């Protein structure tokens, strides 16, 4: 359906652009993956760009959803900051990380300073934003190479600077400049010329800019240029090239390392120097204490250790080129597809280790950073099985998980979604999982075990709000049972005991406690003692959840 033309760049235009860009990258994903030969021919640039943009779009939608019941609509600054932050925390791969910095560069111009107070900006503001985006992305790359997405971004900014008119006119000029630059990339980069393709990251940026034009004008743009007939991937190792069969160039680093990092500017400056000496394709984007780090190295451990020295790295992903994802805590998929696997979303590192030890593929969800559907699809693929049981372990992820399951089914994978609402329900389901029995029977047993497990959590309120137990203030300790606030207080241990007592009043045979890093050290001992002294024949098992958001998770089955 055609979009309503918009003369100015406002919050609605940001939302529309994200939606259109996500659709454009979704349609072009396979094409972009197929032409991905630089810096490593690992065939995932289209997917990485899609996942990065999906994270940005999800963040923007969350801003609008948060204003549905409010008195005012989101501001341009609200939407842009959400878009930039979503892209930063969801950035995947070399090109996805650069795209995140491009979006952040636009937000820095349009959401800060005088522009940040405006409800909208005109074509002149968009020109400045595109220029700063291209320049900041180039600065984020340790050793910029021409013929890549950086070249395409710079050409788009150059073309926009020469355009006079409204946002639609400026966006169209940027798009046409990007198209022209993209077509020229094979003449600038030998790897592209040998393979007979344009730059994959640049192709993705052209799609994103085409969506920007459509957001402003309501008109779909003409198709992006294609290079001469691409050489099949199997032929990229033909004599005369220096691309190896596993997708890496001869002598190139073996691993891609990506992580989010909480650190100060000075520490990140030192980190850049350290990582630049360890490998190549170094891109560090972000600011204000949160960064996304991407590098190709031979010593993945050293790259992570460098992050630890700089600050607090998390969401660490390590990929061995050509051998599949070896996400921290997981194992490389077997060459032969397994019959059945379990994929589960988990809220902390401790549970990620527990689920992995039990044979599941774990997707780590940080507090306030739920995984997007594309990330779940990637996890299903990584599980490398004909049949997959998907455990979202969060009521808020029900629709996201359903979308991921549907996408995986179109790829020929049989997926069953069990609507687990807590990680403790997932533990119960995983405990009865038997891959040898029939798929339907296994799903029924796992669903039954999850449904028979009541769940609770103890957490700290972030702001004042109405609850089913009354009004809570920021800093209050809340005890939730089956998703509803049951008790409000000030002492974590006292609230936990009250919650546990209420749950066990209905009976139970096993109590599962998952203790977060920020919970009092004595809370688990206190609850174990309470069960032992007051509830005969009830067993207790305790797990360490790590940094999981909630202070404590409780399951009773």
General description of the model:
This protein has 557 residues and is α+β, with helices and mostly antiparallel strands. Helices cover 46% and strands 19% of the residues. It has 18 helices and 19 strands. Strands 16-15-12-19-17-18 form a 6-stranded mixed β-sheet, sandwiched between helices. A 5-stranded antiparallel β-sheet has the order 4-5-3-6-7, sandwiched between helices. Helix 1 runs parallel beside helix 3 and helix 15 packs across helix 16. About 7% of the residues have low confidence.
Oligomer classification = single chain
Largest sheet: 6 strands, mixed
Which percent band covers the strand fraction?
15-25%
Amino- and carboxy-terminal Cα gap: 49 Å
Tell me the helix content.
Answer: 40-55%
The overall average pLDDT, rounded, is: 84
Quick summary:
The protein is of the alpha+beta class. It contains 18 helices and 19 strands.
Draw up the topology in text:
Layout: E1 9-10, H1 11-34, H2 45-66, H3 76-90, H4 93-110, E2 120-121, H5 123-140, H6 149-161, H7 167-184, H8 190-195, H9 200-217, E3 255-262, H10 265-278, E4 279-287, E5 290-297, H11 300-310, E6 312-320, E7 324-325, E8 338-346, H12 349-357, E9 361-364, H13 373-383, E10 385-391, H14 398-410, E11 414-417, H15 423-431, H16 439-451, E12 454-460, E13 465-467, E14 470-472, E15 477-481, E16 484-489, H17 492-504, E17 510-516, H18 523-534, E18 539-546, E19 552-556
Parallel strand pairs: 8-9, 8-10, 10-11, 17-18
Antiparallel strand pairs: 1-2, 3-5, 3-6, 4-5, 6-7, 12-15, 12-19, 13-14, 15-16, 17-19
Helix pairs in contact: 1-2, 1-3, 1-9, 2-3, 2-4, 3-4, 4-5, 5-6, 5-7, 6-7, 6-9, 7-9, 10-11, 13-14, 15-16, 17-18
């Amino acid at each position: 359906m055609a979009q309503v033309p918009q003369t100015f760049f406002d919050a609605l235009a940001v939302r529309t652009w994200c939606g259109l860009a996500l659709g454009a990258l979704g349609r072009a994903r396979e094409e972009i993956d197929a032409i991905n030969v630089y810096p490593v021919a690992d065939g995932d640039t289209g997917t990485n760009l899609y996942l990065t943009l999906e994270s940005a779009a999800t963040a923007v939608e969350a801003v609008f959803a948060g204003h549905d019941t409010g008195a005012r609509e989101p501001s341009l600054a609200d939407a842009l900051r959400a878009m930039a932050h979503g892209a930063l925390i969801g950035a995947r791969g070399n090109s996805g990380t650069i795209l995140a910095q491009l979006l952040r560069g636009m937000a820095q111009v349009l959401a800060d300073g005088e522009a940040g107070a405006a409800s909208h900006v005109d074509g002149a503001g968009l020109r400045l934003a595109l220029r700063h985006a291209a320049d900041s992305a180039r600065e984020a790359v340790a050793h910029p190479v021409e013929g890549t997405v950086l070249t395409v971004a710079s050409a788009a900014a150059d073309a926009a600077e020469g355009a006079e008119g409204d946002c639609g006119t400026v966006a169209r000029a940027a798009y046409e400049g990007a198209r022209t630059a993209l077509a020229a990339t094979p003449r600038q980069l030998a790897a592209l010329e040998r393979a007979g393709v344009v730059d994959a990251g640049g192709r993705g940026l052209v799609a994103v800019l085409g969506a920007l034009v459509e957001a402003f004008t309501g008109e779909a743009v003409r198709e992006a240029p294609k290079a001469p007939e691409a050489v099949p991937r199997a032929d990229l190792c033909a004599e005369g090239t220096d691309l190896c069969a596993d997708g890496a160039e001869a002598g190139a680093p073996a691993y891609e390392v990506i992580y989010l990092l909480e650190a100060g500017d000075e520490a990140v400056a030192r980190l850049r120097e350290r990582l630049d000496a360890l490998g190549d394709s170094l891109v560090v984007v972000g600011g204000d204490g949160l960064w996304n780090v991407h590098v190709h190295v031979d010593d993945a451990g050293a790259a992570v250790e460098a992050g630890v020295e700089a600050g607090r790295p998390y969401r660490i992903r390590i990929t061995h080129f050509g051998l599949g994802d070896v996400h921290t805590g997981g194992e490389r998929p077997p060459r032969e597809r397994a019959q059945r696997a379990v994929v589960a979303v988990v809220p902390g590192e401790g549970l990620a280790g527990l689920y992995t030890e039990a044979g599941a593929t774990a997707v780590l969800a940080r507090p306030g950073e739920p995984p997007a559907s594309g990330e779940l699809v990637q996890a299903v693929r990584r599980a490398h099985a004909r049949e997959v049981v998907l455990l979202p372990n969060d009521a808020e992820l029900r629709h996201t998980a359903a979308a991921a399951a549907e996408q995986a089914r179109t790829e020929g994978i049989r997926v069953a979604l069990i609507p687990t609402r807590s990680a403790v329900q997932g533990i119960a389901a995983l405990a009865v999982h038997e891959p040898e029995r029939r798929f339907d029977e296994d799903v029924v047993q796992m669903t039954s075990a999850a449904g028979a497990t009541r769940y609770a959590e103890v957490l700290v309120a972030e702001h004042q709000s109405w609850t089913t137990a009354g009004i809570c203030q920021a800093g209050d300790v809340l005890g939730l049972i089956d998703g509803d606030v049951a008790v409000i207080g000030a002492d974590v241990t006292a609230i936990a005991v009250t919650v546990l007592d209420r749950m066990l009043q209905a009976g139970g045979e096993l109590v599962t406690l998952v203790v977060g890093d920020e919970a009092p050290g004595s809370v688990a001992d206190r609850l174990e003692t309470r069960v032992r002294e007051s509830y005969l024949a009830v067993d207790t098992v305790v797990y360490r959840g790590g940094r999981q958001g909630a202070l404590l998770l409780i399951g009773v089955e």
